[in-house]
Amino acid sequence: MSYEDGPRMFQDQLAEKVRPFIDLIDYMRSIGIDKELPLPTIAVVGDQSSGKSSVLETLSGVALPRGTGIVTRCPLLLKLCNDRTVKW
Asked: Which keywords has UniProt assigned to this entry (predicted)?
């Protein structure tokens, strides 16, 4: 396994092990359980260049800005909606 294989392996494991839980929480929100019971949300916190954007990209599939220095300096709220017609 090379260094470049690491991110892809992480994404594969995420899809296999974590995504079912995210889908379950999405389903619970869709039927209104969040009105009666607080459902989990994700907060990603860390030092500069510690991989926060990479974690969010992997979880959401949304490409975030890349560059040198401070790129995503402001708080970021990703609110995702499920489209059953598109394969994740």
From this structure: GTP-binding, Nucleotide-binding
**Which residues, in sequence order, are CB contacts of 14 under 8 Å at separation 6+?**
58, 59
List, in sequence order, every beta strand (DSSP E) within the chain. Answer: none
Residues 6, 10: Cα–Cα separation, whole Å: 6
Q: Model pTM?
A: 0.53
> Domain residue spans in the chain?
1-40, 42-87
Question: Which residue type, as a one-letter code, is found at position 3?
Answer: Y
Instruction: Pinpoint the alpha helices (H) of 1-88.
Output: 5-13, 19-30, 52-60
